[in-house]
Amino acid sequence: MVDDAVRLQPFGGTGPSTLDVPRSVDDALRAVVGWPDDLLPGQGATRELWELLATLGAADLGVARAVEPHLDARAILAQAGAPARDGRTWGVFAAEGPGVRLDAVEVGEGWRLGGTKPWCSLAGRLDAALVTAHLADGGRALFAVDLHDPGVRVLDQVWASRGLTEIPSTAVAFDDVAATPVGAPGWYLDRPGFWWGGIGVAACWFGGAVGIGRRVHAETARRDDPLLAMHLGAVDHRLEDARRALAEAASLVDGYALDAVQGRVLAKRVRATVAGVCEDVLARAAHALGPAPLALEPEHAKRVADLQVYVRQQHAERDDASLGRSLASEGPPW
Length: 334
Description:
Blueprint: H1 25-32, H2 46-59, H3 61-79, E1 90-93, E2 102-107, E3 110-121, E4 128-134, E5 140-146, E6 152-154, E7 169-181, H4 187-190, H5 193-222, H6 226-255, H7 260-289, H8 292-296, H9 298-310, H10 316-328
Parallel strand pairs: 1-4
Antiparallel strand pairs: 2-3, 3-7, 4-5, 5-7, 6-7
Helix pairs in contact: 1-3, 2-3, 2-5, 3-5, 5-6, 5-7, 5-9, 6-7, 7-10
């Protein structure tokens, strides 16, 4: 069962206790289709969901990165009134990129997709995906697609990353692929749940930072070194910043009817907080531990490389600027 659960409650409390932690991406993709249907944000157990994601992240960020989109897709489908109970593995492909475009065209009583979608993680190993596509009127909509359709082709692109090496995120070409609309045009981005999913990603980052913090803790417990103790203290209060941000967000998601604007502000605050914590913990661990664990300990070296790549889903100053623009349009929020 779950070892070393990550908890969002202060000073311990309950945490994930009923699920085995998969030890590889393949194990995760096999297991996740059988996980409980109530692992959904906004339904009263958001804290437990994010604790699970953080626990997976603390064990292996590759596993967390494989599981999170499947759970997000399941939550999206449930919110759209079409829960996924078909035993398939799901991804969510919603990124845009320069020079590529995916279009949706209504043909008769159905929809077809054509074009290229970038950043499609694990597309060659999943069964289905929720994909955003452009409409003729300039809007965007969400569609469910079968990734085994003969018109789906994973492009042969280099995945040179040294972190999350087991999660290739390359482009996919769609050639007249049948697609099922999920929600009305614009619904995917306008719903509050869009931002809840973004916080779930931050919970995975937090788990990765916890895993690194535990390595600093182990070294400090082993050696009586005042500099190690100083670094551990700094790591602790930064991890506490992230824990409190996630715990408060979980309470808000479950306890308040947040609209899309409020959800957006909350998510940008939490993601920025957790991303900053991750960057600080990475730096503190490097100073505290030196080069040896990075060079000689595969688990630690992988966790550091994985987190460095994964946390870059936070767009740093661009996301700060976006948050600032949102806040400036209203009265001071503090």
